[in-house]
Amino acid sequence: KYNYDLCSACFYRMGNEAEYARMDKPLSVSERLRNLNKDKRFLQLDCRFVKDLTVPDGTRMAPSTPFRKIWCMLNNGNIVWPYGTHLAWVGGDQFARQSLVKLAIPEAGFPLNGEIDVCVDFVSPAKPGRYISYWRLTSPDLQKFGQQVWVLIEVFTPPSLAPLLVSLDVPPLMTFRMLISCAGGRACSSR
């Protein structure tokens, strides 16, 4: 069984040796992480995406716009996330300011079944198009775990106001009455 510390008297009362792992001394979080590959049934880092808090999929934005994406994540593993856990860029388009973002996790670790808001700062690419960037949590020794999250945006070129201003150019000598008559469909004179 995982997550049990028993004295020798309790150990002999509560089951057989196959159900427990014997430890002569308690292990630190980093020692437990090193043992993760040796026996996955005892310790497993995991996470589940809960929801997008900002920038929903397909958000349209202008080129070179800075923005912050925030995901809500859940520790659904059977071990605390250790201090030094990061969110790492793992594929797709790279338009974040960093490719590795350290999470605000205390030294004691992030608790089981706890939710945490994870944020990354981005700048939308300069060229129009659809862009997607994939991210995943990593342990301090950079082992990836849990569900992948992403940001999906569409960069568009906003319409320019310059052509409108040029087409509305009115000669300075026109009077209000001349503008009214031009709007009525009659030919305008330049008197």
TrEMBL record:
Source domain of life: Eukaryota
Domain annotation Nbr1 FW: ranges: 54-155
CDD domains, per the entry: NBR1_like
Any Pfam family: N_BRCA1_IG
Protein name, UniProt field: Nbr1 FW domain-containing protein
